[in-house]
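Intended use. Records like the one below are meant for learning the mapping from a protein sequence to its folded structure. Do not use them to infer anything beyond what is encoded.
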Amino acid sequence: MRHFRNNLTAMLVVSSLILAACGTAADNGDGEGGPASGDQVGGQVTMARATWDTGWFQAAIYAQLIEELGYEVNDPAELTRDANTFYPAVAQEEVDLWVNGWFPLHDIYLSRELFSGDLISEPIEPIGFEVRAGAIQGYLIDKATADANGITSMSDLTDPRIAALFDEDGDGQADLHGCNEGWGCHVVIDTHISELDWGANVEQVFGEYNDLINNVVRPKVEAGESVLFYTWTPNWTIDVLAPGEDVVWLESPSLEDDAGMDSVAGLAGCAAGGDSCNLGWPVNDIRAVANTEFLEDNPPIRRLLEVVEIPLKDIADQNARMAMDPDYGEGEIRAEAARWIEDNRDLVDSWLGTARG
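Structure written out for the chain above:
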């Protein structure tokens, strides 16, 4: 476990070097399962999935839907990517799509900086709204520390005495348990630390996210110790560390570009109370992301991605079951995805009908 401060330019340079060959999709032209519109269906689809396990259930659902449409899809579990390796790969047609895009968090990956300093758009297209305005992010602390010290905002950490409550290594700064290196949230947290008022007294601790929560954050909360961490929804974390009972969300000032997009109405466990909670992070849409040429070559897949939506509660419930069962593996993920499809068969058939034209 280390403390790390990243910058976007370095991340993008490194990401351009970390690409794995995995093939591209091609229409086989055999018309198998061809829709009434005349669009041909079939061929190989190279689908990735995110490294964060809270997105694996959705990836399995989409993969099975694309297969029902008549395509052959690789097992997404065999092509797990961080954001900073997925986006360059999809731009270069080494991967066709994934369904784990977070926007506006991942906007930084949709363009590329040239050596001249100019930005050019990448051939990458966010498409559809898998979960519309359902993905929130922010900073939490244990409720006991919040109540004992009247902490309601990250700005309270501008007080060295408050920041010292979360200092785990004795260097005088609060240790913020954040994201895996390579995730978009890792970059944003470092940007918050650099630019927001509370950042001078805070440093990001990074490592494998699930390990940080299970081996550091959760034991500290259960032991009544002070701890500061980042999380998002949908995520199993807030099922095992309930906001308002075990932990609380802290408000935070926003970056200038995010102002006005960070207010969450009726958020349970907001330390500041009130009707809304300003978390300092814009509310995100979870969206599918694909190579633009791939979508142009496969109109049925484009139409499918445009219409699929998965309820946030269904994702959260699956995430909680996965987190609580040590034997939960890839087979269970695929089986739950298949059950979800059958439980929603009428809706799924309407999506497939739209996709077929």
